[in-house]
Specification:
Organism: Marinomonas aquiplantarum
Helix content: 25-40%
Keywords: Membrane, Transmembrane, Transmembrane helix
Protein name: Capsule biosynthesis protein GfcC
Domain Capsule biosynthesis GfcC-like C-terminal: 195-268
Largest sheet: 5 strands, mixed
Number of domains: 1
Transmembrane segments: 36-54
Structural class: alpha+beta
Radius of gyration: 32 Å
Length: 271
């Protein structure tokens, strides 16, 4: 006899088909959730960016002592232009300093490590260097292009400033500073073009047994110059630069101390 009714669906087949349907449904839900999550994340980033762009910015000028206030973040070019309108003298671009108050802790830590090393070595030379460094003022100077024409003409030189800063816009100084282990006070020497480096390092300032020095230009560029005594090469020293004659015979754990001091000197602020 023929079976005229449909055979029953086995429970295994039913479960497989149901499970397949549920899996597809769950996958669809997951994809939809991911899409919604991405949209929400993107919206959050946009909102955060817009919120940041809406923050006012305050710039404290050191010359003169006034505050520039902006309702929104400001381009460096705009700030430099506005700041230079506040003074009645030619601004020295290499000496311009954009100072970050929130990063001053990094400078204080640099100073702490250097003074600790000088104190640990504890020789007459390290004591003299420590005394000269204590007389200088160090701040966190952002490394930026400060020639207004170059800031305006090259996009990467013109960042959007979104935080509060202090700005120093000095006039051109007539001098350079010389720091050596032979003195307890640093020497201020008149800057002269086309002058041999060793002419700044007279025996009365640097002694006669040095052979190298660090030059820290006003724009924070550092040069290490060797064979000063016998090479007659001219080295341009920008007004406001610093010449640092390093310490000799440093103990092995402090081999980088001279370089560390040179890097700290890039954060010196003329006052």
């Amino acid at each position: 006899m023929l079976n005229l009714y449909n055979p029953p669906i086995r429970s295994e087949e039913y479960n497989d088909e149901a499970h397949s349907s549920m899996t597809l449904c769950q996958q669809g839900i997951r994809v939809m959730c991911r899409s919604i999550g991405y949209i929400l994340f993107t919206a959050s980033l946009c909102f955060t960016s817009l919120f940041a762009l809406a923050q006012p910015v305050k710039i404290q000028l050191l010359q003169p002592q006034i505050m520039l206030e902006y309702g929104d973040p400001v381009r460096l070019s705009q700030l430099l232009s506005d700041a230079q309108k506040q003074v009645d003298y030619p601004v020295y671009p290499l000496g311009i300093s954009l100072i970050s108050p929130t990063k001053q802790g990094q400078i204080e830590e640099q100073k702490r490590l250097i003074f600790s090393a000088l104190e640990t070595i504890n020789t007459k030379d390290t004591q003299r260097i420590a005394e000269q460094l204590k007389a200088l003022h160090f701040v966190y100077r952002e490394k930026l292009e400060t020639h207004l024409a170059k800031v305006r003409s090259i996009k990467k030189n013109n960042p959007l400033l979104t935080a509060d800063y202090t700005l120093s816009i000095p006039s051109r100084p007539p001098h350079i500073r010389v720091i050596t282990p032979k003195r307890t006070t640093h020497e201020v020497v008149k800057q002269s073009p086309n002058t041999h480096l060793k002419n700044y390092l007279t025996p009365g300032i640097a002694g006669d047994d040095y052979d190298s020095a660090w030059v820290i230009q006003a724009d924070q560029t550092v040069q290490y110059i060797k064979d000063i005594q016998w090479r007659g090469k001219h080295h341009y020293l920008s007004p406001g630069s610093i010449v640092f004659v390093g310490l000799d015979d440093l103990p092995h754990p402090y081999q980088t101390l001279n370089n560390d001091i040179a890097q700290l000197l890039t954060q010196h602020l003329e006052r």
